[in-house]
Amino acid sequence: MAQILEFEKPVAALDAEIAAMAGDPAKSAARTRAEARRAKLLADIYGGLTPWQKTMVARHPARPRFLAIAETLFEDWQPLAGDRAFADDPAILGGPARFRGQPVMLIGHEKGSDTQSRVKRNFGMAKPEGYRKAARLMDMADRFGLPIIALVDTPGAFPGIEAEERGQAEAIARATEACLNVDVPMVSVIIGEGGSGGAVALAAANMVLMLEHSVYAVISPEGCASILWRDPAKAAEAAQAMRISAGDLAELGVIDSVVNEPVGGAHRAPAEAMQRLGDAIEAALDALHSRPADRLKAERRQKFLAFARAS
Prior knowledge:
Number of strands: 8
Mean pLDDT: 93
Structural class: alpha/beta
Largest sheet: 8 strands, mixed
Number of helices: 14
CATH class of the largest domain: Alpha Beta
CATH superfamily of the largest domain: 2-enoyl-CoA Hydratase, Chain A, domain 1
Low-confidence stretches: none
Distance between the termini: 41 Å
């Protein structure tokens, strides 16, 4: 593992112990016992993660991002650039593709996979032109009858002054409006972080799925702690109170289903995690396929208006 999270250190110690016994026939029995202890320890740890620990997993640098998922699950993906008004935003990518033989429109946030790409992608924090590009692609999908698949992974929309100057709030609202107005099925998946309106702008969908160790909230735990207690060190306490985990959000009705990750998180077995994600997306699209456009639109609107009534 490129990065070991604090709560994973006991597993890392066993990994080192197992590696030290590799290739020694005399220690094969001991290695088998150590591997069994490791598997149980990993399952115990990941079976009882706190919301703050899940936040750390959701942010793990080895977690599958948009580009990795696009390359693995989709064929003939043709990324389209620009909002036809200002510029292209590399934090949001999208374009037509084929998903298991079906033409779709794929849109999502890309955080980057190394220092250079993270800077280029602005760590997945989109600017107004990114959300305007997303709205443009949703409109295109609607005109051509393409189901929309959106992969959400952002700490939030970019809060810089230049974004505000170019109408960040309006652009997010327009993208959210585009989600609600399309006549085609839309499935959104929170694959890592789902932060604030920057996430909702791609997640006002007919079906919203979450990977098991993803998080989805109106603000980051650190931001919440800074506001409530003026102390970002209380982020773990804030995460607990905010109910940001997939299980909590499914119980609250904010999302529709949870996609289970391999034991130890998607960063430990990305290929298996992406296969499970693909199966969940396919099931969601199948469930929406036969619904008429007016029902799709009405259900989408009712889902999100219900949040306001519940609050």
